[in-house]
Amino acid sequence: MGNNSRTPPDPPAGVPTDPALDRPTEVATDPALDRARAGDDEAFNHLVAPLRRELHAHCYRMLGSTHDADDALQDALLRAWRGLARFEGRSSLRSWLYAVVTRVCLDAVAARGRRALPVDLGPASDRTVIGDAPLGRVAWLGPYPDRELADGPAHPDARCEQREAVELAFVAALQFLPGNQRAALLLFEVLGFSAAEIATMMKTSTSSVNSALARARRLVADRVGPSSQQHTLRKVGDARLRQIVDGYATALENADADALVALLTEDVTWSMPPLPAWYAGIRAVTDFAVRVPLTGCGTWRHLPTHANGQPAVAGYLDAEGTGTHHAWSIDVLTLRGDRVTAITSFLDPGVFRHFGLPASLP
């Protein structure tokens, strides 16, 4: 952001003034804030640092992509830095930053539309598709690393855990909401802002926010269902969860179809964005597994990880028999009871860096 002593430029469009967005806070008397207003970018970074992870997660929930979240957060913080003179300390810095970030995300939603999973685009394939090609015209939903999340709620008034609010089903459902409903639901349920505070952030009325919340809740409830993965994982327990993850990785590495099938529900689904084909039911999933990942790709190695608040496995593929396995997919497992009811394999080696994972395994 440049030299520490420069004077911030005029505030850009889209940066809010400082209405009472949140409960009073000590930040208004923080000497670091005065230094930041005077042009000290190190002071600004110091103020923002404790909030950066939750702001990034908010961008992901809004946009469905870690890459887009990176860009949106960078853009929002630059806008906030340039417009910091307009923050007068009558609200919390957190509230003001969320207003800036949310508006950047709303602009991105309007420009790019929603992100999707293969299951959103059409029926399951009734036979294995060999040589399926990526569908480039679709903006695909991406995975999110748990290591980017803080534990517990982002705010004492939040009604939703951080991990629950990045579960695949929830984030996929958010993509069907218009931007204003998406933002209102996240700001209220996940981040603990009041309807009045959200109305100020979004330059609308409290009644409009309440109406958007009601519509958003109905759609998300219809698509997500009553039980979260966090509830399921707590019931399964850590020991059984490790068995499932290890068993899944070992079955792929050993090309053991029986061991894989033993982990799955009868109505299991398997999808692989950006490939459009997906499979539903134990018979179709088994046929696909046997013909493609178990025998048709090469050899596998895996590392356990966590994505979207769910167990996940990082898959490394050696397709040429060179002895080096290269980053290939992040497989996110959705459980019902102690069985896997959905496998979502994100074929995007570019996200491995977000997970702190190596690009290859010797």
Would you write up a description of this structure?
The chain has 362 residues and is of the alpha+beta class. Helices cover 41% and strands 15% of the residues. It has helices spanning 31-37, 41-48, 52-63, 66-82, 93-112, 168-174, 179-190, 195-202, 206-224, 229-236, 238-253, 257-261, 282-291; strands at 264-272, 275-280, 299-307, 310-318, 325-336, 339-346, 360-361. Strands 1, 2, 3, 4, 5, 6 and 7 form a 7-stranded mixed β-sheet that branches. The longest helix has 20 residues, at 93-112. Mean pLDDT is 90; it is low at 1-11 and 19-28.
Assembly type of the chains comes to single chain
What value does the Rg take, in angstroms? 22 Å
Mean pLDDT: 90
Strand content: 15-25%
SS-based class: alpha+beta
Taking the sheet with the most strands, its summary is: 7 strands, mixed
Distance between the termini: 39 Å
Helix/strand order: HHHHHHHHHHHHEEHEEEEE
User: How many β strands by DSSP?
Assistant: 7
**Tally of helical runs:** 13
Q: Low-confidence parts lasting 5 or more residues at pLDDT below 50?
A: 1-11, 19-28
> What is the general shape?
globular
Q: Helical percent range?
A: 40-55%
